[in-house]
Amino acid sequence: MxxxxxxxxxxxxxxxxxxxxxxxxxxxxxxxDLCVCDNYGERDCPVCFGEGEVSPEREAQYLKAExxxxxxxxxxxPASSEPQQ
Length: 85
Hints:
The chain has 85 residues and is α+β, with helices and mostly antiparallel strands.
């Protein structure tokens, strides 16, 4: 029987990247003279570096930092949505 043409390792401990959702790239929204992508295109994901998977530890670190950032944003927004007079 011939060996498969691909490598399959079910022991891989990688998880889907939470930043790019496994795509390996993210939208690039830089601009001006220092733009690193072509006309607001895509670039490699800064979390998984284009691999689409990260270690469970890196996923937890990203999700923790994302949660802290969202908590800071929520704290900066007014608590009520009542119009000011």
